[in-house]
Design a protein that fits this description.
- This protein is of the alpha+beta class.
- It has one domain (about 5-380, about 390-405): Cytochrome P450 (Cytochrome p450, Orthogonal Bundle).
- The chain is built from 15 helices and 16 strands.
- It has helices at about 40-45, 75-80, 110-115, 125, 130-145, 150-155, 160-170, 175-190, 190-215, 220-225, 235-265, 270-275, 280-290, 320-325, 360-375, and strands spanning about 5, 15-20, 55, 70, 85-90, 150, 225-230, 230, 295-300, 305, 310, 315-320, 380-385, 390, 400, 405.
- The strands form seven sheets. A three-stranded antiparallel sheet has the order 5-9-12. A three-stranded antiparallel sheet has the order 6-16-13.
- β10 and β11 form a beta hairpin.
- The relative contact order is 0.18.
Length: about 400
């Protein structure tokens, strides 16, 4: 592909190669991985002040130095996510590399796998988990109270969803520390990401082989027993499902919990309002999901296509940020403010189109129950005065730590 040299700030000159079809006035240096500060949603939301769609040479949130288009309006993000024919989810890797199923598949193949997985996360199935989620949340709250203060991410936000998910997957509880270590490497250490994913794949591959001979009542066994068009899934397909579920279950809810508790620690009026009226908690969780959305996804142009009057060439990356969609001032009044009882609240935290988050029902219950149990027991809390907070960017935004006192 022909390239042009475009003048960028001196510190970013090493990323100056831009495809020839990108108009210079649309170039904005923006990196979803670094330089976002401790309030990444606000940093991303600032893109709303610029062009409707921009191109950043360093934007790709998984691969440093790979450029991407960034649509900033919710309607354009919806258009990309709902058009799988023009904007593919399929990642091109080596023939031996793992495909995350169904995340990295396009229709109609995507739909076949999605259909067999939907019952796993149906509202009725998640409702049956509520007692277990609440028991685990309460035990973690009691542990925090016994210490008189806590580091919320490590003491509550991470072990709550990870513990539930480990149980659903049928993973050994004794290996929980290993899973948490893998999560940190996959999310925070790009240099170790590939080798860590290989470790995860080998570990899950062993469990898959075991379940073929000794089935149990867990998600791995479900995948092993599943069929499409009467044919059992291959080992590679089962592994692709299990690795995706493993990764998805480790970080998104943890990140959402961290941001919602930070907000309440910094806004005692909102905290007290939820204490006075717990019936507001489900609506508040939806507003936290909107205001503090965490996921950024990528699509790949399958052909030349025009978006918002801009030509996107076949093979170009397009970053679709749930933050930009959910903070779009054209769709939400006072979009940068948290309004606990906002209604309607048609946010994009779980994405749009065929790839809308399959685990949204589980995530919502964990977030609501986690907040309910916390506020029942923990007295008014605030941030510990221990220096600035730090957030990480990438495919999923999150807080590194959240020290709380009460």
């Amino acid at each position: 592909m022909q390239e042009q040299n475009v003048a960028l700030p001196e510190s970013d000159a090493r990323h100056a190669a831009v495809p020839a079809h990108v108009a210079p006035e649309l170039i904005r240096e923006f990196d979803f991985r670094t330089g976002l500060g401790d309030r990444p949603q606000e940093a991303v939301g600032a893109l709303h002040a610029g062009p409707r769609i921009v191109y950043s040479p360093t934007n790709h949130h998984h691969v440093p130095g790979v450029g991407s288009w960034i649509p900033t309006r919710a309607e354009d993000i919806r258009a990309v996510l709902q058009d799988a024919e023009a904007f593919s989810s399929r990642v091109v890797r080596s023939s031996s590399a793992l495909t995350l199923i169904p995340l990295e598949l396009d229709p109609p193949e995507h739909g076949a796998f999605r259909a067999i997985m939907n019952p796993l996360f149906s509202p009725n199935r998640i409702k049956a988990l509520e007692v277990k989620i609440r028991e685990r949340a309460r035990a973690l709250v009691d542990g925090c109270m016994a210490k008189g203060a806590c580091e919320y991410i490590d003491d509550f936000a991470r072990p709550l969803p990870v513990g539930i998910f480990v149980d659903l997957m049928g993973l050994p509880a004794d290996d929980l520390d290993r899973f948490l270590a893998w999560e940190k490497l996959i999310i925070h250490d790009m240099s170790a990401r590939a080798s860590t994913m290989k470790e995860v794949s080998e570990y899950l591959g062993g469990l898959i082989a075991e379940r073929r001979f000794n089935p149990t009542d867990d998600l791995i066994t479900f995948a092993v027993k599943s069929t499409i068009a009467g044919k059992p899934l291959t080992d590679a397909q089962v592994l692709g499902i299990c690795v995706l579920l493993f990764m998805a279950g480790l970080d998104t809810v943890t990140s959402a919990l961290g941001f919602q508790l930070r907000h309440l620690a910094e806004h005692p009026h909102d905290q007290q309002r939820l204490r006075d009226d717990p019936s507001l908690i489900p609506a508040a969780v939806e507003e936290f999901l909107r205001a503090y959305a965490v996921v950024n996804t990528t699509r790949y142009a399958a052909r030349d296509v025009e978006l918002a009057g801009v030509l996107i060439r076949k093979g170009d990356n397009v970053t679709c940020s749930t933050i930009l969609a959910s903070r779009d001032p054209r769709e939400f009044d006072r979009s940068d403010e948290v309004i606990l009882d906002r209604s309607p609240n048609l946010h994009n935290a779980f994405s749009y189109g065929p790839h809308r988050c399959i685990g949204s029902h589980l995530a919502r219950r964990e977030l609501v129950i986690g907040l309910e149990e916390w506020l029942k027991v923990v007295p008014p809390f605030r941030l510990k005065d221990s220096g600035p907070l730090h957030a990480h960017g990438g495919g999923v935004f999150g807080l590194e730590a959240l020290p709380l006192v009460w």
